[in-house]
Design goal:
- The protein is an alpha/beta fold.
- The protein has two domains: 2-332, TIM Barrel, CATH 3.20.20; 341-468, Jelly Rolls, CATH 2.60.120.260.
- Helix content is 31%, strand content 30%.
- The strands form four sheets. Strands 1-2-3-6-7-8-9-10 form an eight-stranded parallel beta barrel, surrounded by six helices.
- Strand 4 and strand 5 (112-114) form a beta hairpin.
- It starts with 10 loop residues before the first helix and ends with a strand.
Length: 470
């Protein structure tokens, strides 16, 4: 019942903001997205005539050893040029856990004891350096990106600690704005952190993908995942959403260079739906690859290839051109791209009324959804503009007495496919419909289930693709 008190904190501002976004009015679309990247990317983009609004800077326990000279230099540069530092306040990192936060723990990666007192010292040092070098100018502080992991997604202790830290920064530095940095998973647990988000200016979100951990469809679907997560945050907390850490690795090259480009394109194609979902900024992690990044982190070797440009030559990868084009389009008021495509793996669809996940090496991610009784599978897509969309469903089926399963597919309630998938391998079933911009359901129904004499009629669903064609 704790979520009922959200209207009591900043109610007038957040309620008004939420109503504008929910209605999808021109006011929400009139405010352009802000863009950010680290200092290496900032210099590359500025050199190309595109000055980002934000510069990302990481702040963590390593500063106790290395000192603050590098951070001070970045603050001074931001003060001169008018950019806004986005400070990834990343103290707990991979060490975060209930015992560590409540009682302290030794961090092998940091080479020091971590506890809340040490966390407080880092926050105090940051405030001192902001006062000295930024002199009250705006800075966005993202508190503990990906904090909702390692069993902490329901931690009331961490909620209280993040709330206190947000209040500390806002009370002790006049230009501070705080975002609570959710990892984009575990939506059902996000309400645990109502006090932290209420004390902050933004609900924050991160999105990372790499070939070493993610399927191709998940990688290419990052844009849709950001829309879904942002919509969930805005509707739960009634706060604007700050996407503070987007990272797409190009490892393995050269194959994944094109996939990195495609994934960035899909994010840019979804600028309209992202703004409708409350997003105010898109910050990419790094301009240049980081050859020295630790391969012991989650994504292994892919951690070294998140850049939009190669470090050795400082030449942009194909994805850099797409990022530039998206910035230009946003600033010119262009609302959508002429190209849009998005995937949904149906074994992880938003809603599955019956059936179960099964393995098949020929399925796109080696898994499919076996709809073994009458029912439906639904997946929602944020479509960036009015127009004709093509829907492709990859499916097959098992027969009963020579009769195939009957499949009906609808986009936004409009019928697009009636088909009877056969048992002779995966095939795509295609249909089209005109729909308006916004979030629409692709619903796939199985209507003629039966079993008799050892035969069982089932509908197997692999993937759904949606593409704007007109």
């Amino acid at each position: 019942m704790r979520n009922q008190r959200k209207l009591s904190i900043g109610a007038t501002t957040t309620f008004f903001f939420s109503m504008i976004l929910a209605a999808g009015t021109s006011e929400a679309q009139a405010t352009p997205l802000g863009f950010g990247i680290d200092r290496s990317g900032y210099d590359l983009l500025t050199g190309a005539g595109l000055r980002p609004e934000y510069v990302q800077v990481w702040v963590g326990p390593w500063l106790f050893k290395s000192g603050w000279a590098h951070i001070d230099a970045q603050f001074e540069a931001s003060a001169r040029e008018g950019s806004v530092p986005v400070l990834q306040f990343y103290y707990w990192g991979a060490d975060i856990g209930q015992t560590c936060v409540e009682k302290g723990c030794w961090s092998a990666s940091s080479g020091r004891w971590k506890d809340q007192a040490d966390w407080g010292r880092l926050a105090s040092d940051l405030v001192s350096h902001m006062k000295s070098k930024l002199a009250g100018k705006r800075a966005v502080i993202v508190l503990e990106t990906e904090f909702n992991k390692n069993g902490m997604s329901r931690s009331e202790t961490l909620d209280a600690a993040l709330e206190a830290k947000a209040k500390y920064f806002r009370s002790n530095y006049d230009g501070a704005q705080v975002a609570i940095g959710f990892g984009n998973w575990g939506y059902g647990d996000w309400g645990t952190f109502d006090r932290a988000v209420a004390a902050a200016n933004y609900a924050g979100l991160q999105g990372m993908r790499a070939s070493t951990r993610d399927s191709e469809s998940s990688y290419l679907g990052l844009g849709q995942a950001l829309v879904d997560g942002s919509r969930g945050l805005e509707r739960r907390f009634w706060k604007p959403v700050f996407i503070g850490d987007i990272a797409l690795s190009s490892h393995w090259e050269p194959d994944w260079l094109e996939k990195q480009k495609q994934a960035v394109q899909r994010i840019m194609d979804l600028r309209g739906p992202l703004k409708d979902a409350g997003v105010v900024a898109l910050v990419y992690r790094s301009g240049l690859d980081a050859a020295g990044a630790s391969t012991s982190e989650y994504y292994g070797e892919a951690e070294r290839h998140f850049g939009l440009a190669w470090a050795s030559s400082k030449v942009g990868k194909p994805a850099m051109d797409v990022w530039k084009a998206g910035m230009r389009a946003e600033r010119s008021g262009t609302t959508t791209s002429t190209v849009y495509a998005s995937y949904g793996e149906l074994e992880t669809a938003n809603l599955r009324s019956a059936g179960g996940s099964s393995y098949d090496g020929q399925a796109s991610a080696t898994r499919f959804w076996n709809l073994w009784s009458n029912g439906h599978v639904s997946h929602w897509f944020a479509l960036p503009g009015d127009g004709t969309y093509e829907v492709r469903v990859r499916a097959q089926g098992t027969h009963l007495q020579g009769v195939a399963p009957h499949m009906e597919v609808r986009l936004g309630g409009k019928p697009v496919v009636y088909a009877d998938p056969g048992p002779y391998g995966w095939h795509e079933y295609v249909g089209r419909a005109w729909v308006a911009r916004g979030t629409h359901e692709v619903r796939i129904d199985f209507t003629n289930d039966a079993a008799w004499g050892g035969e069982d009629r089932n509908l197997w669903l692999d993937r759904v693709d949606v593409k704007k064609v007109g």
